[in-house]
Write the structure tokens for this entry.
Amino acid sequence: MGTEAQAYANLVKTTMGTVNPVPAIVPVKLTVYTQSFTAFIGGAADKYPFIYGDVKLPGVGDSLGPTEIVGNYAKNFNTGNTKNLKQYYGYEEAYNNRKVTLPVASGKRNAFKDILEVYTKNPQTQINIIGHSLGGWNSSGLVTELNKAGVPVNLLITIDPVGVLLSKTTPPNILTTPAVRAQIYLLAPEPVANNWINVFCKPNNNVVNDIKNTVGWEGYKPKWKGYHPSPTSYTTDDAIADAGGQWDSYPKEHSNTFHETKFSHAWFSKMMRETIPSISKSPEQILQAELKKVQVK
């Protein structure tokens, strides 16, 4: 008799034959979703102008918003069926929790309140949150607050979240600080989701080539073509993101997937559709796959 067989025989003898060679079956609890709620949260100047009072100033172009970079993406995103709800928010609207709310007179939504109400009415709601730039930081703060309220978040996608430096600019007179104007989540977010995908922008410095491409030639005559930087060029959007403080150290350590992209900060849609090598899917494909898990009767 072999050593293993002898050991088993001895075990049977000492336990009066009650040993069970078959491991106990541990039941797997599957989450059944009957609807979903997906929040798309834009960055600075995405939904509202980045001016105190949300005033759109004439003559300053579109840089102060609204740019609707995330807004247009959310509007065109197909959730698949009517059970899959979606809502577009400005990052200001994701700052809220039970204690911090915007005045009703502001006309702004409250992402925390909306999600809490949806989940309370139907705990089988799949919650997905996608944020860009300041909206990435605030969406992480939103998830942190939802965690505290007992609302589980299924999927969190943060596209180049910004706020590390901006969240720390709080002088004694807090009413005049960029942090309060920006409605930035002042604490360091610690979001927990079933799946967290973070994309970090690190574009190339192609400024010299982009400037060269502003001029074309017709024979010996120069022709101005305009300044059109490539999607992977470092632009003023990236400089602004740097000023606000790109958030990478915590996501790199705690997210399920951390991806470094060459796209510039403003190219939200391209980053949502870029295949991440480590998972062989894009963030958009991951979101679509999650929405398909919702049961439609």
In short: Residues 170-181 have pLDDT under 50 and may be disordered. Strands lie at 35-41, 84-89, 125-132, 155-159, 195-201, 215-218, 221-224, 257-261. The two ends are 59 Å apart (CA to CA).
